[in-house]
Amino acid sequence: MTKITSTSEKKFIRVHIFSTHLIPRRKISQMEEDIERQLFAGTGIPVYLAEEYRLSEQYTPEYLMDEYRDSMLFELEGRSALEKNIFQKAKCSFQDQNVLCMTVADTIVAKEKAESITSYLKLVFERRFHLPIEVQVTYEKIKENKYRKMNELQLKQAVDAIQEHNGNVQAQHRPQQRPQQKTQGSGGVKGGRPGKSYSIKKSDDPNVIYGRDFDDVPIELKQVDSEMGEITLHGQVVQFETREIRNEKTILIFAVTDFTDTITVKMFVRNEQLPELLGEIKKGAFLKIKGVTTIDKYDGELTIGSVHGIRKTADFRVQRKDTYPEKRVELHCHTKMSDMDGVSEAKALVKRAHDWGHPAIAITDHGVVQAFPDANHYLETLDKDDPFKVLYGVEGYLVDDLTEIVSGAGEQTLDDTYVVFDIETTGFSAISDKIIEIGAVKVEEGRIVERFSTFVNPKRPIPFRITNLTGITDEMVLDAPSIEEALPAFLEFTEGAVLVAHNAGFDMRFIEQN
Fold first, then answer.
1. For an engineered disulfide with 256, which of 125, 158, 235, 373 has Cβ 3.0 to 4.6 Å away?
2. pLDDT tens digits, one per residue of 170-205
């Protein structure tokens, strides 16, 4: 961190950070949320991280584009879904190293957004990375195809879903028409006089479980991190217990989650009220609760006490749907029968595929078929004319008992000269990744007689995870020989010797590829 800035009104906090390696924008966004939650919860003050990088000379604009493209897409999505979509489909190439040529579809929307995307790219390259670039935009005619028609259908589905959601929200927050409170009869509250009944409800609304009716908008529990007075929340009961105390009273203790956080609610009720409450407040129930946040004096935890009212509420979770018009068939599905590689019940996976309108699903666990009966049992619950199918498969194992320890053997023996070597690389692919170090020792008659060691300039940045793993930085290889110089020297060092390595197949693939 280099500095923190804000305005005199403290409408935001901007934290300036400096780094010598790339940080994905998703992590930056997560850090902003963490700082807001831990330091500024409930204040409404947003936190922004402003990054500045000083990368090695290995980072050209073209290579930076390749490495940072996902972060750009993530950041553009936060600005505008249209800008993100246009840039994602754009064809980008570099001329003269600092000239970015971007080809986009010839549409009205693309032309309107091109200037904004260009400004964003120049800001990222020049201000964030100190790499000046010029952006040239060209437009390409697009052909009519089935995917554009499908996109129109998807857009219609999205509009219908938004309208349906808005209708549900309006219905949920529409004020209930309350009848006048009774002043006489068994339904009224008569206080605590001996011999009188105690009503737990102060409303005739059938959705009210306890106390008075209310229609306040609930707050997200992730925003509740201290005593905030009276609040309204909604959520699902995930834990429930009762504790009987003196004077014919019982404590109800239940945990409620709104899937952003969880909080405990504590209520003191008379024993004769328990049957009515236990029928409605139970594990799995969705409730809307109005009460006071307080630090419990017994366990020191933030809880909800002094409950004003409890209402039934619908499951407000957004159910995932497959809105793509042309449904897929999953051919590689693992259940919990796949040891260490699956956690879901077979019938749950099959039901989800069926509910989403998929025509079939394949169960292919690792070396086992125990999920087949559960999958078949679900099929038996469907209508006889339902065309949905389960495809039964398995991932089999082949044990290779013919692995060669020695390959490419000549006339040498283990008593002859051999070279033990190791290489470090920028990644695992011999085709797309590069060698960055070669080290070796030559052994004759059991003694080390000669050594070979060199860094290799890969002519590209070394990924940060590789630097953490090997300790090799861009600065260490900048003045090192290229692979065209280093490899012939290594081959000369190994001439006539047997090559020995740990995981030799990996190392030899890089040697042979180069």
1. 235
2. 555 554 444 444 333 333 333 444 444 456 778 888
